[in-house]
Amino acid sequence: MFRLFFKIITWPVYHMLFWVRVVNKKELKKYRKQGVVLVSNHLSNMDIPLMFHGMPREIFFLAKPQLFRKRLHAWFFRGLNGYPIEQGKDLALMKHSIGVLRKKKALMIFPEGMRVFNPEDALALKNGASLIAIKGNVPIIPMVINRPLKAFRLTKIMVGEAISTEEFQGRKVDKDELTAFSNKVSDVMADMLATPNFQVKEKKKWWDKINVDVARAICFKEEEDGTKILLMKRNKPSYRGGADYFVTPGGHLDEGETDKQGVIREVMEETGIDVKPVRVVYKHQAPDRYNRIGRDKMLSYFVCEYKGGEITMNPESEEYSEAVKSEVDAQGNLVGTFEPMWIPIERIFEKKFDMKPEQIHVQLKKDFKKMGTRIVKRTQYFK
Asked: Mind spelling out the 3-state secondary structure of the chain?
């Protein structure tokens, strides 16, 4: 009753404001009376309302736990057939998902794991959706959304042909097979996105046309005592009488190097930590000292996943020399300091915590409070 009431009162406003076209809806109707896993790319927070109104059947969905943290929000999203994906509760999640499929319902999953804004990061599907479909002995129906939902603009949803999981039934499926199957689904979705007249190229912002010269990492690590962020502590006698300040690891790109490749290399050189860049979250224009060939340059900040490694200080790195080269005592010894370290995330909220540049520090605090370590906001530009 709650879902029906909500759909009735929101239907007129939704369809007046948002123009949605579902391509190949007949494929969904073929499986209307049986359990099925629906998978889609994930572009915005409006994807769930988009599917709620756009699908010709009742759907259940898996969503990020942040939507369920407040009691009222949890009541609302559970009322709309939502269920949180929480770390450490895989068994409960699997039981819920299989239960939905056994009732011959549709389960909606965004297998990219988070909203994806950069095309090169799209459709890197995790194995969860494939595993649920195999365990539930149901097909996967791939779907793709051509652009984020926006008022008074046409958004298309393309439905692909169902992908059977029959070949995996009655036997144990290893991780490599599961990954291969997820990649198969990903390839199908990529082909759907590439369909002529379906994908819409968004207009680039003016700053996207400026070459990136410096790439830096915002890397988080979950430990038993809480979330930590990878930073480098600096100290120079000429800066506020020797006060400590912090910067994110990273540096200049080498010739022919992409910003993703550069941030991986720089973080490894400076800290000994292996990271996986997820996407750019912030950009700002580089100061004059970075304009090595007389043109405007940009700094890009990647939110990164921690892959492994232990902190190792490298005095030969460019970051180290930049931190200390201007500080020489009477005997000609370098007296500045440079030290990579994992900092408890709570410290960045302290009033006296000095992190450079200031605008990134301010925005990081805002975004982390809202979203946690995912930081799912779109790229932000700072002058």
From this structure: CHHHHHHHHHHHHHHHHCEEEEECCHHHHHCCCCCEEEEECCCCCCHHHHHHHHCCCCEEEEECHHHHCCHHHHHHHHHCCEEECCCCCHHHHHHHHHHHHHCCCEEEECCCCCCCCCHHHCCCCCCHHHHHHHHHCCCEEEEEECCCCCCCCEEEEEECCCECCHHHCCCCCCHHHHHHHHHHHHHHHHHHHCCCCCCCCCCCCHHHHCCEEEEEEEEEEEECCEEEEEEEEEECCCCCCCCEEEECCEEECCCCCCHHHHHHHHHHHHHCCEEEEEEEEEEEECCHHHCCCCCCCEEEEEEEEEEECCCCCCCCCHHHHHHHCCCECCCCCECCEEEEEEEEHHHHHCCCCCECCHHHHHHHHHHHHHHHHHCCCCCEEEC
User: Do 185 and 210 belong to one domain?
Assistant: no
Number of domains the chain contains = 2
Give pTM, 2 decimals: 0.68
Report the percentage of the chain scoring pLDDT > 90: 33
Q: Identify the domain containing residue 44 by its residue range.
A: 2-193
Q: Which residues, given as ranges, of the chain have pLDDT below 70?
A: 114-124, 202, 206-207, 237-239, 241, 286-296, 315-336, 370-383
- 46 inside domain: yes
Share of the chain above pLDDT 70, in %: 82
Residue at which a domain ends, from 138, 170, 193: 193
Across the chain, mean pLDDT equals 83
